[in-house]
Structures are given as C-alpha cells and as structure tokens.
Amino acid sequence: MSPPVVEDDVVITMDAGIACRDDLKSEWAAKFHSVERRPLRCTLAVPKTYENEGRFYHCDPVPFLELGTVAHKYFLINLRLPVNDTVNVGIGEIKDIHVVGIHQNGGFTKVWISIKTVFSPWILGATAWFWHRIGLMTRPPVLLEKGILALGVSMTSLNLPVEWLSLGFEWTWMLLLEDVRQGLFYSALFCFWVVFCGEHLMDQSRRNRLSAYWWQVGLVVFGSSVLLVFDLSERGVHLANPFYSVWASDIGTRVSMTFIFVAGISVCLYFLSLCHMVRRVFRNIGGKRQQLPAMPEARRLHYKGIIFRFKFLMLVTLACAAMTVIFFILNQVSEGHWHWGDYTLQVHSAFLTGIYGMWNLYVFTIIFLYAPSHKHHKSADGQHADVAQMPESREMRLTRGDQGPTETYRITGKRAEE
User: Fold this and answer.
1) Hey, is 281 helix, strand or coil?
2) Number of C-alpha atoms within 13 angstroms, CB side, residue 129?
3) What gap in Å lies between CA 403 and CA 204, rounded to an integer?
4) What gap in Å lies between CA 285 and CA 349, rounded to an integer?
5) Most distant CA pair in the chain: distance in Å?
6) Is 349 strand, coil or helix?
7) What is the pTM of this model?
8) Three-state SS for 253?
9) Cα(232)–Cα(187) distance, integer angstroms
10) Are 352 and 326 in contact (CB under 8 A)?
11) What dihedral do alpha carbons 335, 341, 345, 346 form, nearest 10°?
C-alpha cells in the first residue's frame, strides 16, 4: 500500500474560531468564526514508493490569522478540518500541525511605549514653538516652513502613545492605525527632503511652489497610495475577520507582490532623485566657495561657517534618507518572507528603536535650526530692532518673499548675488 498522496494545487478548508476570557473560571466567549480556504503546497523528498511509506510531506507555511489586539488574558483557538466528498479531498492524511506564532514580547513593548511617551511631548512642544515663531514674522510662511510644520505634526502623530489606551480598550484597528500614521510620516518626510534640497536650486521665480517638485512628490504620493491600498485590502478586512489573508490565493499573492514591488521601485527612484539633487547642491556650493578669497576676512569667515553647517546638514539629511529607505525595504521583506518563500530576515529591536530615535532627533534638529530668531539688538539710533527685520543679521534666513533672497540662498542658489 502506497502512502496517501497530496495532490498538486490542492486547497485545504479550515473551520476556525477564536474565543476569549479574562479568568480561569468564566465561560469562553466566542469572538470570531470563519471558514477559510488556503492553497496547500507540499513536496515529498523521497520517491513515492512502498518502501517510503510513512514518510512525511514538507508543506509551505499557510497564513492562518492576525490579531490586531490581545486585550484579554486567555484565548482559545479552535481549528477543524471538515472532510466530505467535496471538501479537503486530496490533502492526504494529516499527522501533525506546526503553528508559528509571531508576537511582540513584553520587554520590547515596554521600551517602545516608553520611547513614544518621552518623545511625544518633546516634538509637540518644539513644533508648537516653531509655528509660534513663524506667526511673529511680518511675512506669510514659505513652502519650506510649511514643510517643517507638516513634518513636526506627522512626527507628533507617530509619537502619540495610543498603545496605553489599548490596555483598557479592545481596539482591533490598532495595527491599521499604526500603518496609516507611519505612512503619513513617510510622505511628509520624503516631501520635506525634496523641498529642502530644491529650495536651494530653484530660481527665485520658481521657488516656494510645490508644483515645482511634481515628479518627486508624484513618486511619493504614488508609492504611498499603493501601500495604502495594499494595507486596507488585508488589515482593513481583519477588523471583522482576523482569519482573512490576501495571500490565500495565487491571484492575491501576485497582486500583493506587485504592489510591494512597485512601491519599492518608487522608493528607489525617489532616493536616486534625491541623491542627484544633493549632488547639484554641493556642486553649487563648490562654485560659490571660489568667490570667498575675494571677500573681506570677517565676511569670508562668516560665509565659511554658513557653508560648513549647511553641508553638514545636507550630509545628515542624505544619511537619514538612506537609513529610512533601507528600513522601509527591510521592514517589507521581514513581514512578507512567510508568504513568498524561504528568504528569512530578522529586523532586531535595536535597529527599530535606533531608526525611530534618529527620526525624532532629525526632526527636532530641523525645527531648531530653521526657527526664526526674534532676539532684539540696538540699532544706531538707540532703538531696539527685531533681528527678523534685519536682512543681513541672520545667517540661516529662509525665503523673505519680496524682501529678496536670503544669505543661504545667495551662496547655494543658482543666482549668486554680492
């Protein structure tokens, strides 16, 4: 007698349910129930002969369920494989089932929530302070300042430790909310980098307009939209049925892989475009450095300091962009390797917390460096003059609208003025 044969392209049907309770004496309360179909792909490492009877097939992992919250103390999973003339035919004889559980351990959870709790008021206060300074200016906010505000707001939204509330409320949409918040931050951060570099490359007539960066911003919007559709197609359904999986069918797997691949291509194209913009900025700075020897010593030292700080900030920006792109790609691969093959990858908690801390430090640095100064100095007639009103008194001035270009723009822009 030959061993039971697992047919090719067979589908396994699972009747699954979840129940929960908060103590050992109460009755189990049913939470979810669903009948799901999954493709079963199995291989036998030896020939299918009588001598190999009793050998086991090796099957690929099958997605089972994903819970967005575990607000109860005890959970019971009931799994049944019904068999009749049309259901679970051709799957062979089930000997055992191995279940792989992926969860966030308690130690990392404490560290992660603590980091968010500390960073949240820090970035919120810095953003409010920055916008208050902008409101004291005699001109309307420019595009770069609006981008910094959007960056601070999105970072504050990502920092909000709403996980504390999940301890007392059963919110099944926590994972979806976290993905949306992270997507908004990615979009704001990528758009800010483009504006930050581009504002030192555009002519005065083309600056301060988001339409001037339509290609880079279009890549960001397209990639974010693709990931949002992919996220809603799975985790959106998980709100009512945690057993649903977009990877359960061949068509769903191909569509999901296409979405992730397209989003990854968009991110890579964006990063190459950003590197090209940074290279142009450094080339412009190199051209302006040749004019420094002809300046008076005091002014030459002043401009050297501006150029050094600006180049350092550009290098930090490029390094932060590279680490963010690497983190984005690794995060997608680490979450999806269970679905597309044997490619395993582990993203350690130190890398996650390090990237998160880098984002907060970078946003705080940008807010601090680009906040307008309102210190008062005495003018020649003995009156107090606001530094913000003095065109040549502030070295890191942003665009001043009809009051002319700033010192940073004069050095790094296309049209140098002396």
Assistant:
1) helix
2) 15
3) 12
4) 39
5) 109
6) helix
7) 0.74
8) helix
9) 17
10) no
11) 50
